[in-house]
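Here is one chain, start to finish.
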Amino acid sequence: MPRRDPAEPQPAASMTEAERVAALRLVRSENVGSVTFRELLKHYGSAAAALAAVPELSRRGGYRRAIRLCPVDEAEAELQRARSNGAQPLFVGEA
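Its structure:
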């Protein structure tokens, strides 16, 4: 059986709606793909904490303008559309 990396986010029984919105906002933000998303979660411990850190990370990385973060209302609308179509989004760290 493969060993689990202790630095990886641990599965949780469920996430709060605020955590789901934060996770979707993070992954839908400019220059955040799947690998960056997982690395940010691993480093900051939560999507909300990672979202708070992204503006400073982009400045330190040399960006002249702020990286566009996905707005809350866009993430909430996407989750609502998914659910209204019978989908149940599943996020990293959610069992």
